[in-house]
Amino acid sequence: MDPLGARDDVIDIDSLTRWNLTQLPEYVPREKEDEDKKSVFPWRNDLNGKICLWSGDLTRLNTHAIVHTTNEKLNDRSTDSDNLFLKAGPELYKEIRADIKVIKTGEAKLTKGHGLPARFIIHTVGPRFNVKYLTAAESALFSCYRNTLQLAREQSIRTIGLSCIHTVKRGYPPDSGSHIACRTLRRFLEKFGESFDTIVLVCNQENLDAYKNILPLYFPRNSKEEEYALDNLPEDVGNENGEPVVAERQIRILDKPAFAAYKAVHVGQDDFEETIDLNSQFCTSTALDVGHHPFASMEEDPDKTKKGTIYGKNNADVRRIESQRRYERLLKRAKTDDLTDIAGTRFLYRAGSDRFNRPVVVFVGKNFPATSINLEKALLYLIRVMDPIADSDFIVVYYHTLTTNQNYIPMAYLKMAYNVLDYKYRKHLRSFYIVHPTWWTKLATWFFTTFTASDIKDKLHIIKGVQYLYSSITPDQLDVPTFVLDYDTRLNGPRYAIPSEAPEAL
Length: 506
Description:
- It contains 17 helices and 12 strands.
- The chain is an alpha/beta fold.
- It has 3 domains: 4-230, Leucine Aminopeptidase, subunit E, domain 1 (3-Layer(aba) Sandwich); 248-310, no CATH class; 337-505, CATH 3.40.525.10.
- Strand 5, helix 5 and strand 6 (198-203) form a beta-alpha-beta unit.
- The longest helix has 22 residues, at 315-336.
């Protein structure tokens, strides 16, 4: 058997193009409204020279180590994971069973590469994405990337194939995950860049476009790209390590609180603020009343008091504020991101108005390429189309006509979208019509509205044909695709009487 170095399928990293040598797009000069605005990720050619962006088979890379994204028991059934175990050979199974057994989410552990060109494999477990626990998912993903890089540094691994730890299989949106990955890598290289020679960002089709768009924001390749990044970076770029920052969790930590209380009383609050040295990393904009610090005076429930003074709101209010902030971030992106390719599918569009002058939005199931579309961009496009009308009553018509398995929206994605969309969508939705349903559609809709979206259950209507809409929406106000009309004619005949009863409700 030939040595690994002689295998034809091995990728030598010296043959890969470095990020600082990749082709640059043409950037429109920025209107410098704020001359003092400085980039938090300045152009660093030395760091860019350590990065390669590559789409291909991770197991072919001839690096010191590659990163394997898996589950807690290291038995993830995915194409990439199966391929890795197949090529590494049975010795990898034996080492895992003997030395690792289980990995917690966010951790990183090392094994030998065995039959792979890479000498080592770093195994890590990415988080499952749930919009209700967005902060936890972001923090766990940061830990994955940070711990992976730290482990590589501790083991003197100088070249690494870094696969995407944020996976669509675990529900993580490619764009959001790429922001965390890129900024964590950038901050780590700023501190420990001398520890690495090459880091290959290994992509597949589900996240290649995201990396191409986001990597320039954190690793600009010239001064023009650095200026471009100034206007396109998200508001939250993390702390000095790239870790997500949660403002509501930042509190002031005072040294010797009893002494602080004394100083506040005898010196004066204004002088006291200038006297003590507070670590700004842990400070909020609202000062803590040190005279009522739980260490300085007895309180029945200091945690409850702290929550009241810092948050000023109950748990329901905090969740509502978090949800609103999350939606506003998405709305900002929906207005600025390039969604031309999503709009071109014409799966969602505004039609006319119903008989009560309420706007109608049409969703065409057959036009939605669920298996190939960027689901995060699809959500942004939905927000772009619907946000302008969601402040008042509106109608949604969904054509399920001739849909196949390629068009079915994953249930987990539906739940995520339902929770992300602002409350006004549910409040102002008056009717949701499902046209040409199948038995499976009825079952899935019942399940979704029973266990996830019970507040819109009474607004959903199952109807057998297009003409059942005409009692509430006139034909001239519906932009119906030709194939829907043709199918409707074959199914229901060219003309038929509309029964007097209301559409079938769930």
